[in-house]
Each structure stands twice: as structure tokens, then as C-alpha cells.
Here is the input.
Amino acid sequence: MTPFIAEIIGTFLLMFLGCGVNANVSLNKTYGSGSGWIVITTGWALAVYVGVVVAGPISGAHINPAVTIGLALAGEFPIYDVPEYVLAQFIGAISGAFLVWLTHFEHFKATEDGDTKRGVFCTAPAIKNTLINFLCEMTGTFVLLFTILYFTDATLSSDNTIIGLGSLGALPVAFLVWVIGLGLGGTTGYAINPARDLGPRIVHALVPMKNKGSNGWGYSWIPVVGPIMGGILAALLANLL
Here is the structure.
């Protein structure tokens, strides 16, 4: 497996499970319908865990363009590899969201509200305020990347024996995304990932669906530019410190 393929698969798993939990909670006649914010934030955290477990050993499991750009600016990733990673992440995000549409096809039909259907795919502000919405996406991603830059590997250097936790080593990222969702996610839905929001938004725009409502293009730049700016600021501060 190449890093390009690993980023596709990792982001695909993130989106298939993440948008899947959105669908399970939001759409009519699922067993999880109406189960709430704790289920959504936990599901997304565990979706990140799955994506990182699979892609981590091969690509480092960025599965997020803001992370890729931030790591490159922090000197932790070759900047010339950024376009390849970002392309892979968008391919994975679009593929994962499309499969959610297929697997939940009957439940989309059973749901009348267009905003609810769009919410399975992409984010929207709870209260629309462009500056504050942008700030929320930027600061959420800042916390994500700034903390990731301080993650350390568990090793025993005296005899070069690796002590790491194997696949369990991906858990800190899951906990990080979980607390961002719980603490900061209620204002904008915490995209904190351009591919996570724009990729599925494109799917929502393209797939046939009755009463699917607006695609929200007027808002769509915020969960793209905000996270990228948050990643850049985190990298600059980490370098400064």
C-alpha cells in the first residue's frame, strides 16, 4: 500500500463511519434515530480512530488537508507531498459519503426535511454569524493540530526497543477529536477538516434525492478556509515555541 492509497482508505473509513453516524442519528426510521450529540461526537471520534489505525503505519494518517498543510509548515512533512495527500483525502471523503448515501438510501427517502438530509453530509452553523463561525472552525482545528504536534511516541532508547501501543496508539487522536466535538462542536458542527465538509457537500449536490434542500454553498468556504488557517496558526506557534 502506498501513502496515496492509505490516505484514500483512511479518509474513506473516516467519512463512511462519520457520515454514517450522522445518518443513523438524524434520518427517520433508523434504530439510532434521535440518539443525540453524544452518539455523534463519540461516533466521529471512533471513526477517526479507525482511519488512523489503517492509514497510520503507511501515510501517517493525516486524513485531513488542514493537518497535512500544518505539518508541512511545521517541518514535520515534505511540502512537495501536500498536493498528493490532499487529493487522496478528497477522493476518500467523496467515496465514503457516497457509500453512506447508498446504504441509507431508504432512510433518506423516509426523511422529509432537507436540512436534516444535508446535515448527514456536511456542516452548518447553529447560529449564522460569519466571523464567529469562521473563528469556531479555526480554533477547533488549531487545538487539533497544536495538540497533535505535541504527541510523542513511546520508545525505550537505551536498547532501541519500541514500547509503543500498536494500534491502541491511535486512541489519543480519537480522544482529541472527541473532546473538540464535546467542547467546541456545538456551534458549527466542528468540520475541522476541509475534505470532511467539502467532499460530502459535493456528493449531496450531485446525488438524486427528493427534497434535499440547499447545498449551503454560501457557507461552504468557512469549513474549508477556517480549518486551514487554524492548522497554519498551530504550526507557526509550535515553531515559535
Notes: The first helix runs from residue 3 to 26. The chain has one domain: 3-240.
